[in-house]
UniProtKB/TrEMBL annotation:
Pfam families: HTH_5
Superkingdom of the organism of origin: Bacteria
Organism phylogeny: Bacteria, Pseudomonadati, Pseudomonadota, Alphaproteobacteria, Emcibacterales
Domain HTH arsR-type: 13-55
GO molecular function per UniProt: DNA-binding transcription factor activity
Name of the protein described by the UniProt record: Transcriptional regulator
Amino acid sequence: MTLKTQKKTAAEKTRARILTLLKQQGPQEAPALAASLGVTDMAIRQHLYALEELGDICHCKVARPKGRPAKLWQLTEQAQTHFPNTHADFSTGLISSIKKTFGDQGMEKLLDVRLREQVTDYQTQIDADDPLAEKLAALSDLRSREGYMTDILPGDRKDSFLFVENNCPVCEAARVCSGICARELDLFKSVLGDKVSVNRTEHIIKGARRCAYTVVPKGEED
């Protein structure tokens, strides 16, 4: 491998890490990205401008109470193609064919069957007697392996959590079949148990950067 090729590969890896950070953490300023990646401000700006030229990111300016506006870098729609999206064209085409052949009721029945299969599969890997934090950690591991790029954050209420999916590998299918998202919520409720309340607060399909769920022990909702 030539020195030029090595430099190109290193640059590509850095740019891939930038895209991943923006996907996981949302819009960021250049200095914050530089600090996260351990590179200089000058180096990060070179990478950002290169990604902008490729059409993968763009920037916007956000007013601050004092001083100059913040220059935030964020992903474009095009950049979503760099993240897992499980056979989008095939999935949407298959859903369309199922609806035409079996109708909406047939589609709902198939989704119910799939939900039962997922619940059974997840329950074999998530111990129902574990504390909530451990259940969420196991769920996070399962979902991340499926391409959802999950995070678990502290919630606003006592002993609560925010379960985050930064990527949706079935996004295009979910856009044409809302039942997919409904079953996802049902899946989480089933595997986390009836002692917690699970609610979706952010939704990629509705324009949010991520999907997020509040997970609150019952009795602590108010």
